[in-house]
Design goal:
Elements: H1 2-6, E1 8-11, H2 17-38, H3 44-54, H4 56-69, H5 71-77, H6 80-88, E2 94-96, E3 101-105, H7 124-127, E4 134-139, E5 150-152, E6 164-167, E7 170-173, E8 181-182, E9 190-194, E10 199-201, E11 210-219, H8 223-227
Antiparallel strand pairs: 1-9, 2-11, 3-11, 4-9, 4-11, 5-8, 5-10, 6-7
Amino acid sequence: MKFEENGFLKVNSFFSKQEIENLLEKIKKNYQNQFDRLGLKKDFTQNMIDLFNKDFNTFSNCGKHNQHGCIELYQLATNEKLIKKIKELGISRPSLSTRPVVMQNHRQLSLKEVYYRTPPHQDWGSIRGSKNSIVVWIPLMDVTKNEGPVNFIPKSHKSGLLKTKQEEGFATVDVKNENFIFEEMEVGDVLFFSTFLIHKSGDILNDKIRWSCHFRFNDMDEKDFVNRGYHFNYNYYPIMEKE
């Protein structure tokens, strides 16, 4: 199977463009409501930058509510067609290993460079779930070379977990091999890849926000994962405010 050999698989037009465009519209609505409240009347990208600079807490809250509560995002993550494909790629009993993630990559919407242009890393180093776990990466816009597509080293998943260094939640790796490739993607395309595949963000060469979402799936039947007591590497807890 191509996926097992290369560690990734791009599927064109997996979802309809309308499905993805509707999701992006829902995601943007949180921000638009805050633009309206604060009287921000420039184009959407500049409003995002102004909100980030003037009221970072609100900017952050918009993203948190999208990732924790956007129903359309969770519907996409549990889409019947998507789950069927995950099973075809070797996940016997799929389970979301983390909440869905929405990314809005832009150099002016990040406190640190690592947040908009991630260095080479392996997702398994952060997840530490099943050995056959998979990432589903979905662009919410057309992503060409100019929008900084995901760059990866084919077949690098076969080396297993390399020595990693934690950097802002990413299990970064020091790689000598610079033979990274990328796939340009259109709205509706989906990229599946092993959590052991070495990948990084491409350089964003224009002033667009690169909108994307991704899901990570563990296999609850994978023997090593079972034997490790279903290790869970994330904590979600409330922020207790002083009264």
